[in-house]
């Protein structure tokens, strides 16, 4: 092997930062030292990895191909390093990814449950949107991801854990104008309502648009909030309506005075929360144990909300 892990780390940093100076700072080296290693890697691989423009750095076709392999190698090296550290002190580690519309509400109970079951387990949490979590999972940067299903991908194994139904959230005044009979309320009844949703890229936004039969081009859709906490405060002040997962409902209504919730009529719209791993990981005990803890915590939260 004529290239080094250090060269791959520098290459990955430049690809992420799209700037040699920022990449050097990120890697805690001088820019000339980083540039020398990138040049040596390019000579080894037989071509330029970056297209150097005046104000930007772009990957060449060769660079795009190499980046996929580099991240797999770096992910494997990180896992080996972590394994060696854990093995030396008798500890095990688990890296879990989780999407932002689930993390604040599920994590406290899940982490407490994992600690109770195995005090030697060291858990690393990465919070990111679905697309990023799937990329991290494929690259070996996390061991499993908690997200809404289906996630997609023939190389992934998806395990459904619990159903998280959607509620309609807003101020009392706004909800009072939606439907005269709450038991007959349907998501399609919201097509003339002002909906406020999370900014583009959140899977919850796509799910909300789908169940309401709307698209991003609707003049009544306002996407821009970065979190459910922000949405809750906006709709509680009468700025529109939003769909609130049961998982978040109790926490948000306790935190936001004036936030009211209304259930849809049957069949109630919902998302399926599940656990995803690589097929190549194989069937291991930690996955079943993690799934059981998440299922129990999630079921407890949504059941309490329904009652």
Automatic annotation (TrEMBL):
One of its GO terms (molecular function) is DNA-binding transcription factor activity. Residues 3-60 form the HTH lysR-type domain. CDD domains: PBP2_OxyR. One of its GO terms (cellular component) is protein-DNA complex. The keyword NADP does not apply. InterPro entries: LysR_HTH_N (IPR000847), LysR_subst-bd (IPR005119), WH-like_DNA-bd_sf (IPR036388), WH_DNA-bd_sf (IPR036390). Keywords: Activator, DNA-binding, Transcription, Transcription regulation. It comes from the Bacteria. PROSITE patterns: HTH_LYSR (PS50931). Belongs to the LysR transcriptional regulatory family. This is Morphology and auto-aggregation control protein.
């Amino acid at each position: 092997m004529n290239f080094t892990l250090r060269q791959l780390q520098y290459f990955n940093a430049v690809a992420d930062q799209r700037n040699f100076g920022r990449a050097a700072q990120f890697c805690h080296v001088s820019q000339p030292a980083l540039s020398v290693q990138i040049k040596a890697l390019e000579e080894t691989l037989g071509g330029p990895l970056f297209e150097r423009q005046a104000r930007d750095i772009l990957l060449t076709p060769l660079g795009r191909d190499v980046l996929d392999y580099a991240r797999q190698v770096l992910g494997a090296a990180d896992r080996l390093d972590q394994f060696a550290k854990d093995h030396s002190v008798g500890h095990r580690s688990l890296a879990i990814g989780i999407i932002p519309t689930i993390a604040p509400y599920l994590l406290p109970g899940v982490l407490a449950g994992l600690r109770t079951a195995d005090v030697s387990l060291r858990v690393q949490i990465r919070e990111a949107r679905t697309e990023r979590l799937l990329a991290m999972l494929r690259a070996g940067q996390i061991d499993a991801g908690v997200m809404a299903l289906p996630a997609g991908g023939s190389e992934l194994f998806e395990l459904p854990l619990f159903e998280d139904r959607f509620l309609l959230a807003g101020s009392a005044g706004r909800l009072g104008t939606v439907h005269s009979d709450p038991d007959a309320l349907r998501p399609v009844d919201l097509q003339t309502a002002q909906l406020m949703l999370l900014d583009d890229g959140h899977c919850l936004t796509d799910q909300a648009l789908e169940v309401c039969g709307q698209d991003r081009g609707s003049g009544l859709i306002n996407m821009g909030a970065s979190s459910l906490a922000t949405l809750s405060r906006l709709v509680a002040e009468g700025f529109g309506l939003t769909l609130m997962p049961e998982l978040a409902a109790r926490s948000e209504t306790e935190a936001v005075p004036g936030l009211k919730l209304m259930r849809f009529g049957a069949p109630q719209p919902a998302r399926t929360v599940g656990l995803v791993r690589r097929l190549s990981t194989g069937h291991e005990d930690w996955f079943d144990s993690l799934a059981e803890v998440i299922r129990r915590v999630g079921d407890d939260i949504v059941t309490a909300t329904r009652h």
